[in-house]
Design brief:
The protein is an alpha/beta fold. The chain has one domain: Rossmann fold, CATH 3.40.50. It contains 8 helices and 5 strands, in the order βααβααβααβαβα. The protein has a 5-stranded parallel β-sheet. Strand 4, helix 7 and strand 5 form a beta-alpha-beta unit. Helix 5 crosses helix 6. The longest helix has 13 residues. It is globular, with a radius of gyration of 15 Å.
Length: about 160
């Protein structure tokens, strides 16, 4: 049996909130909370920092999801250095926070350290960025590290969620 663990990028949460606001589509957000509560939806703490630049419903929701956000480990710091050495264009030096390399590093670290369980855990990065040739974005770097990258709607389809 394979269980999927999603490492989500800021872009997916922002887009979801823009198109499916919490106050209008609570069912969508309740399903995400179920994933958070079962450790199947996680993000580096840098995603929370990016989200927290705004004072909106998403920020309030994210701050309540304490189980979702992970502090960086020594191993992730090494992975981020490795990623940025090979792909310096991944970060935007103009931005106050840039979670992209941390999202990828968290997924890589989890993939390198599979838990000793009967269940096989598949790690997938969730981002709204798209693979466009050689443009250095999350999907491009994920591909180089053999990490799957999907968008938030694909998460819904993978989980077989329907909203009426």
């Amino acid at each position: 049996m394979t269980e999927t663990c999603y490492v989500i990028d800021t872009s997916s949460l922002v887009k979801l909130n823009r198109e499916n606001p919490l106050d209008v589509y609570p069912g969508v957000w309740n399903k995400l909370e179920e994933l958070v509560n079962t450790d199947r939806l996680i993000a580096p703490i840098e995603v929370l920092r990016e989200i927290s630049n705004n004072d909106d419903q998403l920020t309030k929701w994210a701050k309540k999801q304490k189980k979702m956000f992970r502090e960086p480990t020594v191993e992730q710091m090494k992975i981020v250095k490795e990623i940025l050495k090979d792909y310096p264009a991944l970060i935007d030096v103009e931005r106050k926070f840039d979670a992209d390399s941390w999202v990828i590093a968290l997924a890589i670290e989890l993939s390198r350290n599979p838990q000793k369980k009967i269940v096989n855990i598949k790690r997938i990065v969730v981002t709204e960025e798209k693979l466009r040739g050689e443009k250095v974005k999350i999907p491009f770097v994920c591909q180089k590290y053999s990490i799957e990258a999907i968008d938030i709607i694909t998460v819904f389809r993978t989980e077989r969620w329907k909203f009426y």
